[in-house]
Amino acid sequence: MIWMNIFKSEIKYQLKSIVFWVLAIAVLGFVFSQFTEEYVKFPGDQASGIEGQANSASYGVTHNLSSEEEIQLIRRHLWKDLFQKEGFTRYGLIIKDIRVDEVQKKAMAQLIDKIDNHSSYQEFVVEVNKLDTVLGGNTIYGDKFRPMLSRKLTYEEAVENFENRVEEGMTNVYGRLFADYLGLTAGLFPVFIGAFLLGRDRRWRMDDLIKIRGIRSLVYVSAKYLAVVLLLVGVYLIISLIPTVKFYFLSKANGWPFHPLGFLKYTVAWVLPTVLFTIACGMTIAELVGSGLIAVAAQIVFTFSNSLPLKGNYSLSRFIIRFNTIEGHDILVKSHDAILLNRLFYLLLSGLLVVLCAWVWEKKEAQGRR
Predict the structure, then answer these.
(1) Residue 48: inside a domain
(2) What is the mean pLDDT of residues 33-61?
(3) Do 214 and 257 reside in the same domain of the chain?
(4) Boundary residue ending a domain (96, 121, 149)
(5) Cis peptide leading into residue 309 (ω within 30°)
(6) pLDDT grade for 53, boundaries at 50, 70 and 90
(7) Residues 138-169: pLDDT tens digits?
(8) Do 221 and 361 meet the contact criterion of CB atoms below 8 Å apart?
(9) Are residues 141 and 212 in the same domain?
């Protein structure tokens, strides 16, 4: 009964809060400034030329490369960086061009020679990562950013990819891309609520009332946490209904099969764990250091560090899923187990953080440091 009263009270407060509605509008604005159904076009409509015929126009790119294609693209980058730019690009929060020194020039030239001497793909991967280290890391040559390599699609490949997307279901394919954009907001925006969730009651001296009533810390913290989670997840689910409706009419007009849960299921499976973690992380850091602003700053760093690379890294260090492609279903199949493990890990970690937050809250209460 006490838990439910705290839960309902927090929901009522957030629904009257300007911060909550500003964040909801911010999520909506960001996502739909990035995602549009204009992406969904038949290849013949994407480029100039005679409709239905292959031509020299661009039909998009693919990151799904064969080993030989990857090697040759790297060689092309090496030649350009070494002899044209005399520098290379370092990726990160700030992308910048770096001039190469003599040691780096020698390492790049040696790699070109090894590629020309037909080293195996396994040897190539080892050598190209060594070069990335010599260049200081975060270059196109390392495992982290090499998945950004791409080549142009032919008209035939573009048509085949489009037909595969129709067969799988446009809402499934674009549901993953939509969840990618949602995930970026879920990694940051909820912290502006979570980081100040418990501090607000401390400022209002509600903690004294809580102590007098003998409310357990875990009851108090979990009720407020789940109330905010419910509201924010509700916002994300409602937002995911918008493209669902749009794609219903798009599918109906084009005679495509329609899968109504495409956007919803990826929002739940990929975005929900990020929302839970962001709120729990913000609460816990704020409670540990006694400052919501520090928690927000930390979450900003976490989010930007997780936003790159744009796809392909689903290790347990990545709390945001960056799939960021509408390419074939085979890529999803290959990554399925890693993504599933990642999402389950952050669900569990979120729960542990809430327990830790409640423990810290109780210790501070007992020591009179609140």
Answers:
(1) no
(2) 58
(3) yes
(4) 149
(5) yes
(6) very low
(7) 899 988 888 888 888 888 888 888 888 888 88
(8) yes
(9) no
pTM for the whole thing?
0.81
Pair (182, 276) in one structural domain: yes
Among candidate residues 86, 117, 149, the one where a domain is terminated: 149
In a shared domain, residues 130 and 195? no
How far apart CA 191 and CA 268 sit, in angstroms, is 19
Whether residues 144 and 175 fall in one domain: no
Number of domains in the chain: 2
Report the distance separating Cα 125 and Cα 321, nearest Å: 25
Domain of residue 123 covers 71-149
Residue 50 lies in a domain: no
Do 203 and 255 belong to one domain? yes
Give the model's pLDDT for residue 205.
59
